[in-house]
Structures are given as structure tokens and as C-alpha cells.
Amino acid sequence: MKIIELIMMEDEKRAGVDTISLVYDPAIEENFVALSKQQEGRVALSSEYMRMTLSDADKRIVTGAALVPNKPIYRNDGGDEYYIYFSKDTTRKASESFLKNGYQRSTNLEHEEGDRLKGVSVVESWIIEDEVNDKSKFYKMNLPVGTWMVSMKIDNDEVWKEYIKEGKVRGFSIEGWFVDKMKTKTKTEQARLK
Predict the structure, then answer these.
(1) Structural domain boundaries of the chain?
(2) Pair 118, 153: CB distance under 8 Å
């Protein structure tokens, strides 16, 4: 089965993560990551690691992983089965470009295209550098070094009461533009992810 590494083309305007969605069911299987809605050239990713923690109910902050490096993600596009993954380097670049491009307020529910949430913003972002001494341990998360963590502030009353507190959303899912680098036992190719 093919294994495809997703990478960022740094010279392109549309590269990296541009939205973090709040989702109910990140479509996860026990040891795999499953993808949510896919659009041409984009990938919407959800992960078993993307469970959110209610950091502080009064502060209305949720914390979780946005992207986990080197995690095999099963795909099935019309019978074409393969895995994708993001390296630590790509994960870091994606987190940096997300902030540099000012996408902190680019959020939605369940990947609803064009429906950006008001009053929801990423207020904290970091890469896990140490498995033992990372803030994620405070939230009892066991994530690998290189994981991109985010905290979101939920000032939107409807989102907080009807989705977060009621458990209608339980995780983060990224959306963005990446180039695929196909890896098989015999060759390496580059193509646009579709």
C-alpha cells in the first residue's frame, strides 16, 4: 500500500493550514486517523489525538492537538487505498504559516465551507518539544514530540453552550493546502493532492 508524505510548498500562496474546524466525530478508528470532508487540493484532517480538553470552563478555552507528526492516516478515495502522514518539519511549518498568515480566527463547525465562526479564535499555539515536561501533560495528554497543540477561546455563546458543553464537538480538524510526495518501495513522486 502506498504511503504519501504531505509537504508544504513554501513558494506558493496557498500552502499549509488555513482553518481549524471544531468537529463532533473526527472520524477516527482506533489506531488510525481518518479524514473528514475533502475538497480538491485540500485535506481536512482529524485525529484520535485531537480530543479537546476543557481547559477552564470560566475562561471558555479548549485545548488539543491540531496535528500529530508521522501518524499514518488511512485514505480510501474511490477504492484507491493509501496512507498519508506529516513529518515533524511539515507540522512545524504548518503551525508557523497558520500564525504568520493570521488565520487564528479562521474556524468553522464540521468543515462547513464558507461558514466562519465569530467569537472563536486560536489564542495559544505550541509544538511539543519534550514528552515529559510539556504543558500537554498538565491536560493528561500523551502526545509525541513534534505535535502541534492549540488552545481556542470560545466567546461565542451558541458554540460554547450548544456545541462544546453539550459535547456536539469533541476535537479539532485541520484544513489546508499541501503537496503530496508519494513513497513506494521503488520510487518517489511529487503531485498535487486532490
Answers:
(1) 17-70+88-174
(2) no
